[in-house]
Amino acid sequence: MSELESATPSYMQIQNYVFDKIKNGEYPLGSKIPSEIELAELFQVSRVTANKAIKEMSVMGVLDRVRGRGTFVCSDQSISTESKAFGSAMKLDIGGSRKHQIVQFKIVKAHPELARKANVSEDELYYEIILVNKTKEKNESLDYTYIPVKLVDDITKSLNYLSSHFVYDYLKTLATAHPKFVKIFVNIPHYPFLQTVDFLLENSEEMSIFSTDVYDVNMHLLATTYTTYPSSSLDIPLLTFSI
User: How confident is the model at residue 86 (pLDDT cuts 50, 70, 90)?
Assistant: First the structure.
């Protein structure tokens, strides 16, 4: 096992394993996959970890958990971003009404946290795009978006588009990217690289942070956005669901 693989969380290793089996046809559409107990034994992890991996893949529409029967590969793996959870702290809107102002743009090497999340070396180059979300005259939140340089040669021409659209929508415009899944992680630590422009927000002493990660069908990370906002901003819900 490589150093990068060993740094990958156990539940994601299980997910990658299942995705690979689906991709190579070993787990055909509609077929039953190993039980959580079997996966836990295979990866030498707790059943709780295996359950987390399978539960997430079920939420993403990849697997179908049938009580009393087991877990099956969904026959229809289409996913709708409109029916998934997105943070309204980012003021997302599928129609593109989100308005941000870019306050910083540069190319950086992967921060340790980003390298671990993307399973790449810390020498990997990323576009860093920091945007401030404004409500009337108030700066409400910040978005730190990271997109691999190898994914797009020159992103500068698209900065205006990125300032008004969710990164998922931008990735859909690229021939080199095929976004398929979105994960939202909460309770992200206030890493130093997420403190660059804290001064733009009021009451930035206590910050709440979550990340929105976009993956392709093989669960390779295409882009990630860290959203930071003051914990005192009680009017900002964490997640908004469409039902």
Answer: very low
Residues ≥6 apart with Cβ < 8 Å to 129: 102, 104, 105, 143, 144, 145, 146, 147, 155, 159, 162
| 241 within domain boundaries | no
* Secondary structure class of 60 (helix, strand, coil): coil
Average pLDDT score over residue span 217-230? 90
Q: Are the C-beta atoms of residues 186 and 129 closer than 8 Å to each other?
A: no
Residue 117 domain flag: yes
pLDDT at 76 over 60: no
**What pLDDT score was predicted for residue 58?**
78
Q: In this structure, what token pair is assigned to residue 125?
A: 């180059």
Nearest to 88 by CA among 189, 161, 195, 166: 166
Backbone angles phi, psi at 55, to 5 degrees: -60, -45
Question: Could you tell me if 92 and 40 lie in one domain?
Answer: no
Strand, helix or coil at 50? helix
- Which one has a higher pLDDT value, 230 or 243? 230
Question: Is the pLDDT assigned to residue 93 strictly greater than 50?
Answer: no
**Is there a single domain that holds both residue 62 and residue 95?**
no
**Beta strand residue intervals within the chain, DSSP E:** 63-66, 70-73, 100-109, 125-135, 138-148, 179-185, 207-216, 221-230
